[in-house]
Amino acid sequence: MTGEIGTENRWLRLLKAWPEKMPQQGLVVTTLNEQIPFTGFVFDDDIMLLQRPAPDAMGGRQVFVPFESIACLKITAVVPTKMFNEFGFSGSLPKI
Protein backbone atom coordinates (compact mmCIF):
# COMPACT_ATOMS: atom_id res chain seq x y z
CA MET A 1 0.00 0.00 0.00
CA THR A 2 1.46 3.24 -1.07
CA GLY A 3 1.05 6.79 0.10
CA GLU A 4 1.96 8.69 3.21
CA ILE A 5 0.82 7.25 6.51
CA GLY A 6 -2.26 9.05 7.75
CA THR A 7 -3.22 10.61 4.40
CA GLU A 8 -5.92 8.04 3.64
CA ASN A 9 -7.91 5.53 5.66
CA ARG A 10 -6.10 2.15 5.75
CA TRP A 11 -9.33 0.21 5.03
CA LEU A 12 -10.15 2.47 2.11
CA ARG A 13 -6.64 1.93 0.68
CA LEU A 14 -7.06 -1.84 1.05
CA LEU A 15 -10.48 -1.90 -0.62
CA LYS A 16 -9.30 0.30 -3.50
CA ALA A 17 -6.45 -2.16 -4.11
CA TRP A 18 -8.72 -5.26 -3.91
CA PRO A 19 -7.74 -7.44 -6.90
CA GLU A 20 -10.53 -7.86 -9.45
CA LYS A 21 -10.08 -11.66 -9.52
CA MET A 22 -10.13 -12.01 -5.71
CA PRO A 23 -13.54 -13.04 -4.33
CA GLN A 24 -15.23 -10.54 -2.02
CA GLN A 25 -15.77 -13.18 0.64
CA GLY A 26 -14.92 -12.99 4.31
CA LEU A 27 -15.78 -11.53 7.70
CA VAL A 28 -15.54 -8.00 9.01
CA VAL A 29 -14.84 -7.92 12.74
CA THR A 30 -16.00 -4.71 14.38
CA THR A 31 -14.52 -2.89 17.36
CA LEU A 32 -17.49 -4.30 19.34
CA ASN A 33 -16.29 -7.82 18.38
CA GLU A 34 -19.24 -8.46 16.08
CA GLN A 35 -18.35 -10.75 13.16
CA ILE A 36 -20.21 -9.90 9.97
CA PRO A 37 -19.88 -12.40 7.11
CA PHE A 38 -19.96 -10.93 3.60
CA THR A 39 -20.14 -12.12 0.01
CA GLY A 40 -19.72 -8.72 -1.56
CA PHE A 41 -19.16 -5.08 -0.70
CA VAL A 42 -19.13 -1.52 -1.99
CA PHE A 43 -17.64 1.51 -0.27
CA ASP A 44 -17.15 5.24 -0.32
CA ASP A 45 -14.62 7.40 1.51
CA ASP A 46 -16.16 6.78 4.95
CA ILE A 47 -18.27 3.64 5.03
CA MET A 48 -18.48 0.09 3.71
CA LEU A 49 -21.74 -1.59 2.64
CA LEU A 50 -21.56 -5.37 3.14
CA GLN A 51 -23.77 -7.94 1.44
CA ARG A 52 -24.47 -10.80 3.86
CA PRO A 53 -24.70 -14.37 2.49
CA ALA A 54 -27.93 -14.85 4.50
CA PRO A 55 -30.17 -12.45 6.43
CA ASP A 56 -29.35 -11.81 10.09
CA ALA A 57 -31.83 -12.58 12.92
CA MET A 58 -33.76 -9.38 12.14
CA GLY A 59 -33.86 -10.09 8.37
CA GLY A 60 -31.11 -7.64 7.42
CA ARG A 61 -29.30 -8.62 4.22
CA GLN A 62 -27.00 -5.57 3.94
CA VAL A 63 -25.15 -3.68 6.65
CA PHE A 64 -23.34 -0.34 6.63
CA VAL A 65 -20.11 -0.32 8.64
CA PRO A 66 -18.14 2.90 9.16
CA PHE A 67 -14.41 2.41 8.63
CA GLU A 68 -13.61 3.55 12.19
CA SER A 69 -15.68 0.59 13.50
CA ILE A 70 -13.65 -2.04 11.63
CA ALA A 71 -11.15 -3.89 13.82
CA CYS A 72 -10.06 -6.41 11.18
CA LEU A 73 -11.08 -8.08 7.96
CA LYS A 74 -10.83 -11.86 7.60
CA ILE A 75 -10.57 -13.45 4.15
CA THR A 76 -12.47 -16.75 3.95
CA ALA A 77 -11.96 -17.43 0.24
CA VAL A 78 -9.02 -19.55 -0.83
CA VAL A 79 -6.64 -17.02 -2.37
CA PRO A 80 -3.20 -17.57 -3.91
CA THR A 81 -0.66 -15.78 -1.73
CA LYS A 82 0.77 -13.90 -4.73
CA MET A 83 -2.56 -12.07 -5.02
CA PHE A 84 -1.76 -10.24 -1.76
CA ASN A 85 1.17 -8.60 -3.55
CA GLU A 86 -1.45 -6.66 -5.54
CA PHE A 87 -2.43 -5.04 -2.22
CA GLY A 88 1.16 -3.82 -1.89
CA PHE A 89 2.40 -6.46 0.55
CA SER A 90 5.85 -7.92 0.04
CA GLY A 91 7.17 -11.36 0.90
CA SER A 92 5.40 -14.69 0.67
CA LEU A 93 3.38 -16.98 2.89
CA PRO A 94 4.08 -20.71 3.26
CA LYS A 95 1.91 -23.14 1.30
CA ILE A 96 -0.74 -24.86 3.39
What does this structure look like?
The chain is mainly beta and 96 residues long. The chain has one helix and six strands; from the N terminus they run αββββββ. The chain has one helix at 10-16, and strands spanning 26-30, 35-38, 40-43, 47-51, 62-66, 70-75. The chain has a three-stranded antiparallel beta sheet, with no helix packed on it. It has a three-stranded antiparallel beta sheet with strand order 3-4-5, with no helix packed on it. The longest helix has 7 residues, at 10-16. The protein is globular and about 40 Å long.
Give the helices and strands, then pairings.
Blueprint: H1 10-16, E1 26-30, E2 35-38, E3 40-43, E4 47-51, E5 62-66, E6 70-75
Antiparallel strand pairs: 1-2, 1-6, 3-4, 4-5
Which stretches are low in confidence, meaning pLDDT under 50 for 5 or more residues running? 1-5
How much of the polypeptide forms β-strand, as a percent range?
25-35%
Give average pLDDT, whole number: 89
Determine the N-to-C terminus distance.
25 Å
Report the oligomer: single chain
SS field, number of helical segments: 1
* Major sheet description: 3 strands, antiparallel
Strand order of the largest sheet: 2-1-6
